Amino acid sequence: MHARRLLGVGTALIAATALTLTGCSSGTKEAAQQTGEAMGQAAKDAATATGQAALAPAVSPVLDLLNKGESDIKAGNLAAAITAMGGFQALWDKAAPVIQPLAGDKWPVIDTAAKLVISTFASGAKPDAAAAGSAITGLIGPLTTLIGK
Fold it and tell me: For 68-106, how does the pLDDT look when each residue is reduced to its tens digit (9 = 90+)?
C-alpha cells in the first residue's frame, strides 16, 4: 500500500517537474531527470520492502517446519522428521501462492526444491536420513536467502 502511494506521488512529481521545466536549460532538465530517477529508485526500494514484509509471514512457518525436520534428522530421529514433514505439502500449498510472485527469478529453484521435499516425504515414502536431510536443506537455503536471513 505504501509503495503504491509512493509510486503515485513520485509519478505526479515527475510529471509536474517535466511540465514546469519544458523550456528550461539542459542543466536544469538533467537535474530534473536525476531527481525523477532517484524517485523511481525510492519507489522500487519501497516496493521491495513491502514484498519482503509480505514474504516473512508466508515463509516463516515453512522454515519452522523444515528446521524442525532437520533437527529431528540430526538428532537421529528420522521417524519424527517423517511425521513432522508429513504436513509440509498442506503448508506449502498455502505459502506458495504468496511466495511465487515475490520470489521473481528465484522461484524455479524454490519450486524444484519444494517438489523434492513433497516427493521425499509423500505418504508412504520411506526416505533414508541422507535423502531426507538433503531435501530439507535444499529448500531451507533458497527460502532463507529469499527473506534475507
Answer: 999 999 999 999 999 999 999 999 999 999 999 999 999
- Tell me the whole-structure pTM to 2 decimals: 0.66
Q: Which three cell numbers stand for residue 112?
A: 524444484
Q: What residues make up the domain containing 77? A: 2-146
CB proximity list for 145: less than 8 A, separation 6 or greater: 106
Q: What is the residue whose three cell numbers read 513520485?
A: 10
Residue in 108, 116, 109 with CA at minimum distance from that of residue 136: 116
C-alpha–C-alpha distance, residues 27 and 31, integer Å: 6
Q: Are 111 and 15 in contact (CB under 8 A)?
A: no
Q: Count how many residues are written for the chain.
A: 149
Contacts of 85 by beta carbon, 8 Å cutoff, 6+ apart: 65, 69, 117, 120, 121, 132, 136
Grid coordinates belonging to 68 = 524442525
Q: What is the pLDDT of residues 29-53, one digit of tens each?
A: 565 566 556 555 554 444 445 556 7
